[in-house]
Amino acid sequence: MSRLDTKFGKKLKKYGATEFNRCYNCGTCTAVCSLTNSEDSFPRSMVRLSAAGDQNGIESSLKPWLCYYCGECSTSCPQTANPGELMMSLRRWLTGRYDWTGLSGLFYRSSLVTIIAMVLVFAGVIGYAAYESFDMERIMHTAHYFEMFAIMGVFAVILLPNIVRMWYLTVIKPGYKLPVKVYASSMSELFIHMFTQKRALGCDDNQARWFAHLILVIGYLTLLFTTVFLDWFSTESMFVVVLGYVVSAIVFAVTFVFVLGRIKQKQEIAKHSRPSDWFFIIWLLLMGITAFAVRLFIDLDLLAGNLWLFLFHFTILAQWALIIVPFGKWTHFLYRSFAMYFDKLQKSK
Length: 349
Ligand code: SF4
Ligand code: SF4
Description:
Fumarate Reductase Iron-sulfur Protein, Chain B, domain 2; globular; binds iron/sulfur cluster
């Protein structure tokens, strides 16, 4: 039986949705959405579930993840109910529902809590550096292993259980009983969407935005691989050094364009930035620029006298790995890809 929560609208405000109760159910938003179809009809259906406070209906739905936020529905809504931002807010709310620790929801609802967590991580990095008597070599060594273990630890302890919860809520609980061979044969959907996000191409406005995201995903993953597995800050391989410069510059340049877009607020998606959006994009930008600067200082033989630069980079890295990746907007990248996989499973029944 569905659990209706009369206070759901109030809760959702903290995730960014403020106007959806103005909806008078005309259906224009669904009619203009280029990603909707008879099998997956949205965003009106999600506006109705939200207005009714049907939390079970929302948490068992993959539709919020099928929207790529072109904003077409919001600009066409005669009631300015902003269905595009509602879909975004539902993605934030769902992220909180999947997360077993409860921290995602807490960070989405409170910038103050996020800032406190960021400060604690900063204090941890400085405390560790002091413990090592600010010995550059030892700190760099630890930072390298920290990256490796943070990635594995966050995935195993936080993200994997959360994906299992998402699977339970959207596939198992609604009663989809599927043979293992269907899970195996649908698996390609997961990787195709994870690395290409090709569904975004279906949005009328989206080709340039899709391409920029694709470049960013490739740049980010290559930077991760270069620093963690090819040991960019210590290597003497010219190929790896140049590769690191190129990908860190790409990450910085693309995120800089996204930051400008959010400041100018010309596109619908940029008009409603929440603190979580800013944290995500600014930390990505800082990761690119500080990684580039650290390697440049190494090559110019300047890093030894500028430990502050490495500590700044290490802090950004630690905050990214311990807060934004497991609990922030980074998770959308993962949940979107799994949503496409689970959607395929649902349709295989
Ligand atoms: S276009 Fe606006 S008013 Fe019409 S169904 Fe969509 S959200 Fe509601
Ligand atoms: S923002 Fe775009 S993709 Fe998302 S529901 Fe609205 S029209 Fe569809």
